[in-house]
What we know:
Layout lengths: L6 H16 L3 H17 L1 H12 L3 H24 L5 E4 L12 E7 L3 E4 L13 H9 L3 E4 L5 H17 L7 E3 L4 H9 L5 E5 L2 H13 L6 E4 L6 E3 L1 H20 L11 E5 L2 H12 L9 H15 L5 E4 L2 E3 L4 E3 L1 E6 H6 L11 E7 L3 H8 L4 E7 L7 H11 E6 L38 E7 L20 E3 L2 E3 L2
Parallel strand pairs: 1-18, 3-4, 3-6, 4-5, 6-7, 8-9, 8-15, 9-14, 13-14, 15-16
Antiparallel strand pairs: 1-2, 2-17, 10-13, 11-12, 18-19
Helix pairs in contact: 2-4, 2-6, 3-4, 3-6, 4-5, 9-10, 13-14
Amino acid sequence: MSTVMSVEQACAAAKEVAQWYADTDLPTRAGLLEAIADAMDAARDDLVPIAVDESRLGVDRLTGEVGRTTGQLRLMAQVVREGAYLGVVLDTALPEATPPRPDLRRMRVPLGPVAVFAASNFPFAFSTLGGDTASALAAGCPVVVKPNPGHPRLSDAVMAIAQEALRAAGAPDGVLTMVSHELQDGIDLVNDDRIEAVAFTGSQRGGLALARLAADRPRPIPFFGELGSVNPIFVTPEAAADRGASIAEGWVGSFTLGAGQFCTKPGLLIAPRDEAIRAAAVAAVGGVAGQGMLTSAIRDAFLRGVGERTDISSVEVLHEGGWDADTDTVRATLFAVPADVVLADPRLLEECFGPMSLLVEYDDPQQMLALADVLPGLLAAGVQGQENDAIVGDLMPKLVAHAGRVLWNGWPTGVAVTWSMQHGGPFPATTAPATTSVGAAAVDRFVRPVTWQGMPQSVLPPALRDGNPWGVPRRVDGLMELS
């Protein structure tokens, strides 16, 4: 049976089961997520070869990515079972107060059917069953997936496994559906009035076009878009003097990982002018073999981005990469540019998706602070420094003002799926900077608060009833009760 439905069929199926799914108790919903995870783990050896063929990513990388995907599902099952995400608050009636206070009980409820646009660069973990799908399902929202055209066979295989796991666990078919990868299906999906929210990971151009559709509907809906980021790393003079060569090598390893096809790739290393850093970076880049990119469209966009920077007269090419047509691989490109040029040319603060990065060289550490002030919104930013560096106290608040995640002596590639992870940031990194698309808090995007006033016990949701039958954390008359 085909996993692909028309937009009309998918949205109708999702709407039909939305109330059933919203009403599921927490253990049941958690069990559905775990059933999908178990099925994916069991099918790993069948799925990875399809992903290798369609994405050109390696077996080890993709095998690990299956584990990340099932780990995301299981983390969301933990979030659901605990129930804290419901945000339950009870204020009991105080008839003697002036004015009298009624009985008020508040909790979060699912938004309803959610459209998820799959990404290309993580064929498992940000795709059909990626973090957006996992967190929307955890919230109690049916999901309609718009698959990525870069891996159609994998999308179909993953969806078939997930749907069968849900059926076996007793869920109706509309809980998780998929439309085609055609552009028009994505447009129609966002415009369908039965869709209550959209989650997207991809290009700024595509994301903003869809965000406008979501905002311009007769009934606008939330659009949660992750659109990319340049993710700068600042190197203090003290750190450069102490370990400049190793910092350069770590930077190259991070921005060339997976052919630079990570939204968290460090696109800028902002460091003092230092020949040792230059030499170590050039040597490291020279040792990186050519790599295949996910699609020809992504490759061509990368080559255009490299060409645009090469055409800027004040940008120096430290290592020229390029495309090998015979093997259809690209080699990493490394640029150097003075800090004052970046301050004057905002094009150099834009993301270029692929194995390319800029060494931004400063002569005065105060230039780091000036650069930090003009940064766009970022998913991540970091400092390579020494604990007692005087400038860090001024630099770090500026990074916090621009980024969703700040790092100390680390690299932004590698986003842990945990309770505390924040994978988001101010525009243009995302369209909703108060949210995250990775980690336990990702579920918060797909719920909204409702207060029940003076309601009889029989009408209240279980989480709001006296006696706390679901055993969730609740705040009662201002005091936190954990169960």
